[in-house]
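Complex 170.
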Amino acid sequence: MATKNHNLSDYDINTVPDATGMKVGIVVAEWNENITAELLNGAKETLIKSGVKTQDITVMTVPGSFELVYGASQMVKADVDAVIALGCVIRGETPHDRYICQGVTYGLARLNAVQDVPVIYGLITTLDMRQAEDRAGGRLGNKGDECAITAIKMVDFKRKIESNAPRMTF
Ligand code: RBF
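Predicted structure with riboflavin bound:
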């Protein structure tokens, strides 16, 4: 992917919709907790900076990234406008990590296709811990920040679609 110098925390504030009144659920994996805690901090800080109230952010943990799919599928049923799924899978000695990544990626994509609440993909998949640190508040910013901005944009997208709904009927 052409992401060599892409900083995950860089965004144009002028393109970020007003997040006042938005409710966001965050599901975070405990595995690689040193990384996922940073993703969570980034996501929460960016949501709050953008106008989401602290009490409108619901955080639940799951044991590992594989459980993010179930966690997100339950969280979408809560009173939230978007769900952010945060996890970190680091390449191991066996192909196990690839099965986890495939399962989570497919599961979260499927959730977006079959239900109404946007689910944001906050899974870091790296070859080693250093690459993960780079993307969790390090050299390349914080994937949690990127997910927070994406969540706000997707809630705004849905609000716009819903407010234009009568004009979209045939
Ligand atoms: N969960 C993660 O979130 N990140 C990992 O890098 C990760 N590596 C794993 C490696 C092995 C060998 C196993 C058995 C599990 C790993 N898990 C990891 C946990 C996984 O997501 C899940 O919680 C467990 O497999 C139980 O379903």
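The longest helix spans residues 143-163.
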